[in-house]
Amino acid sequence: MRGLFIALLCINSRAFAQQALPIPDTLSGNNFNLRMHKDSVQWFQGKITQTLSFNEYKYLGPTLILYKGDEVNISVKNEIGDTTTVHWHGLHVPAIWNGGPHSPILDGDTWKPNFTVLDNASTYWYHPHFDKKTALQAIKGAAGLIIVRDKEEAALALPRTYGVDDIPLVVQCKQLDADNQAMPRGMQDSTLMVNGAINAYVNLPAQVIRFRLLNASGERSFNFGFSQNKSFYVIGNDGGLLKKPAATTRVRLSPGERAEVLIDLSGMNTQSLYLMSYASELNVGVQGGPTMPMPPGSPPMDSPLNGIDFNILKIQVVEQNANAITSIPNSLVTLLPYEEKNASITRLINITAKDSLTMDGPFYFNDSTFDMMRIDYTIPLNSTEIWSITNKSMVAHPFHTHDVQFYILDRDGNPTPERERGRKDVVLVEPNETVRIIMKFEDHADTIVPYMYHCHVLMHEDDGMMGQFMVVPASSSSIPRLEKSAYLLYPNPSNGKAHLDLNDIGNKPEIIVDVYDSKGLHLMSMTEENSNKQSLDLDLSSLANGLYFLHINKQTYKYIKGN
Ligand code: C2O
Ligand code: CU
Asked: With contact defined as beta carbons under 8 Å apart, do 221 and 303 qualify?
């Protein structure tokens, strides 16, 4: 292990003094309003940094508190001057409300997803997911946490007073350019922030503290631990609690991954310690770990934080609260991992690179790049599947699936450590490693909108390291093809204001749109002559909610009028 560095010394002498850790406010109830907008933050002397954020925040957004079983209505207003989407990372929601690239929110528009919360108590998050723009928008700060609560978790003696003994930590590293602007592709990502604060500290009472850790970086993995190797307990993975607390001194989180941990600060009043990343212990090839010697002429990849141990957050222990939790529970929840024998298929996914001998992208799944019009896997509802992911590139990739949570079966045949035996939606696959995951595709089927799987290194995702799967009704006899309307006509569903992308309709002297109801009754028609426009605005707000067929220059598209 190399020497211990104080992060501040080695990263950025432009930083302001220590800042108290900001704790984002919570929103709860059944109706949520989010407004994504442009803002700015004065992080460093000199130029202010342009950001994207939600609601009253200048960076990041409020924490949404959801209760399992509740129906929620969310309104997402886009005021960023560009198209975006908002994805509920980790939540098990219908594909149309999942917020992937197929659900663009145009500038000025409002998107209104609604769904029942089916997820187990855990820490999830929301962030943009527009094709090729995820890195740009997320790195600028458009992200926030989602905490799901449920009865099982509520019955346990765990710290859960938000901001007091239950502390959300959104940990990010990014590169700012000479003008202090966030670089979506910056690989010298040495500006480290927690909940948007650089050089943060927090006062915490001398009792058991729960941290909800999220790695919201574009590419860096953190090997979390505490100073002096103080031991702690992992109690939850991405999608829920473990069977029992797993004692450890490290938890590695790649981009998109979460962990809930407990640390016992009892008896430590007036002492201080650090949350750290022991990145010297990461393997070569894991972003943020020790760097490998690069062939001459390669772009610089070396952030000063790579391969060293650095501090992330200073913790100053203060007096214990009344009614403090002072012990670690022996057991948590019942987990029923899916059984291998119930899997109907094993899908082999090879991670490949354009040039397998360098660490440069673009990277692919099974040698193909993302295509909005290609469904990679069609999955009958309620099937259990094993996905076996083999990394044949020189860098590690955090593999992420939408829709459902999975369990890790094994890594190179080796059993998963206790601290990773919970429900997950991101798993890091190291170079030359094979990770097998198992999941069951329950509840939501859709023949129009697919779900995504992708690398959560945001620039890899934007460069096409993404695929799509469609969960279809178990009874469907034929394999559906992707409805073009999923991306030509959007938002779909919408409240009646829909945009038709004309680029893919072809150069037609006129565009004729005929609207039919689901029984084939002709309702209206519209003609646009000599259109040189790139898109056409259709006003379908007079239609009742429901399914329609639009015949557009003799092609048929499904359209759903919703709210
Ligand atoms: Cu957090 Cu598809 O992403
Ligand atoms: Cu990747």
From this structure: no
